[in-house]
Known about the structure:
By secondary structure, this protein is α+β, with helices and mostly antiparallel strands. The chain is built from 9 helices and 13 strands. The strands form 2 sheets. Strands 7, 8, 9, 10, 11, 12 and 13 form a 7-stranded antiparallel sheet that branches. The chain has a 6-stranded antiparallel sheet with strand order 1-2-3-4-5-6. The longest helix is centred in the first third of the chain and has 12 residues, at 2-13. Residues 64-65, 67-68, 72, 74, 99, 101, 118-120, 135-137, 147, 151, 153-154, 157-158, 167-170, 178 line the site of one heme C.
Amino acid sequence: MRKLTFLLLLWVLLPGPGAAAQEELPAADGAAILKYILETAPYTRWGTFPADGIGDFHGIYLKGGEPHGATVRIYVNDIGLAGALTEDFGGALPPGTMVVKENYPGPPDDRGALADLTIMYKVAGFNPGANDWYWVKASGDGSEISAAGALEGCIDCHGQEGNVDYLLRYGFGAEPFISLGPVLPGPDGVQVMAYLLEQDPYTGWQAWPGLEGYITTNSTHGQEVIVYANAIARRAAALTGFDPAETGALPAGSIIVEEGYARNMGNPKLMTITAMYKVEGFNPHAGDWFWVAADPTGKVNAAGALNGCIECHGAEGHQDYTRLGLGAAGE
Ligand code: HEC
Ligand code: HEC
């Protein structure tokens, strides 16, 4: 009975669109929020800010900034993601949005144990003067809460010029207030391969929809190929309204990688890694693609606005310089 009253109360307090999903949301209370993100709806299964052509937070340990850890990882719940993805995003995420940040003491390649969790949770009516965010700082395992509520320290720093809805790291398609280190690599072959092999290993990406596994071919790339696409490219393709025939193009930040294999006594042997990476303004005459050809270890053989790649990929009829096309996208 008590639980029912509580749920009813929540339902009354948090009406509006998506009320069904909000019934389970915690109250504006540090312990309840921790219980929610650790047990009820574990944050490690959430997504993160949509890739927007400037940055991609997906599954990546990022270089962090003062006063947070030297390495951070950011998670956003579905309510927040839906808000960030609405076409008429008005500069404020919806009530129910939660952003959880893991903070580690060391640099990304030697980050050490998870030290703190910092959380922002938007509760309608909680603190209208500062966009209704409820702030929490807790130990890495969530067992100790050091501060929670309308915390002035957090609000002052997060409210500074350049924020969007008190967020500092994500700019909703525009340049964010702060961008630390290479979220995406520059147009440089060695940087791009380091990114693909170490920072966001392409072998962990999914295939372009409809192109899973080995594809038998006989192209300049090999007898068998595997094609991977990063989250920026795949999410653009999955957005309703993505129509390559109309817009003709993937967004900046898109990366497609193709592994070329030779058949070796029936076993495919990796011969080459090639990549196309869209960098805004890099080469507007040829779709802004930056091309990379590397050996199986990732050693770069050629990179840049490579004419050979552009001529064959840019032949009449190919969507945005892709030979396999973008037609299977969004299925
Ligand atoms: C002195 C400035 C400062 C203070 C104080 C501060 N933050 Fe931050 N916060 C940042 C910066 C800079 C970033 C982006 C860099 C990063 O990810 O580490 C950030 C990022 C975050 C993020 C990720 C979402 C975003 O803004 O992009 C969360 C969540 C967060 N902070 C929570 C907190 C909480 C909770 C507190 C208070 C306990 C707090 N912060 C206090 C500067 C601050
Ligand atoms: C003579 C034509 C030709 C040349 C030259 C060529 N490619 Fe391709 N490329 C293809 C074909 C055909 C495919 C489709 C998959 C397959 O059969 O290998 C492809 C596929 C790809 C893909 C997967 C995405 C897509 O377009 O479908 C990448 C990435 C790629 N090539 C990179 C490169 C790079 C980098 C170069 C230059 C170093 C290059 N290619 C040169 C013909 C070419």
